[in-house]
């Protein structure tokens, strides 16, 4: 499947604060991704990384000749920032709701430029990388279906309680671990046709729609 064409609009920031806004145009859709330093206030390490990254993204920032600026696909970098913001919210959440997902352990970046190239997440020991899509309809696991749906529901509620969303809600983004518990993965945003409607992508409403369709997948 061909990737949708996109255009990067202006990256906006202010000398008066540490907020930032990235504008992305995909077909006839305009996406504004906003980040604030306050998103990371619970984690000094993440805050320092965000401020350093913000400095390198300033429109008038000019890197020194010895810095590496081998930029890759901007949308891939954008997905990393969306995921980073989500994990930051999970890290600082003040809720007792269960939330089965990885935890952010660190950030991988290029030392010379400070550019973030990946996230270090806690390991989920799974059954040979099996997702709910792989085994959710297998008759031998039918007794697990209600447990998995309950865990997915509780995890989505946990995400929403800390101001985050799952985004691309679908069975293939539910990992079944070695104890047969369901874990949510992939917080990079987006949607998958048939699971979440395009106009509801990256919203709490989209998560609930995906949850309903996951329920239909398990019990339909």
Automatic annotation (TrEMBL):
Protein kinase domain ranges (all copies): 1-220
Name of the protein described by the UniProt record: Protein kinase domain-containing protein
Record PROSITE patterns: PROTEIN_KINASE_DOM (PS50011)
Naturally occurring in which organism (per UniProt): Penicillium chermesinum
GO molecular function term, any single one: protein kinase activity
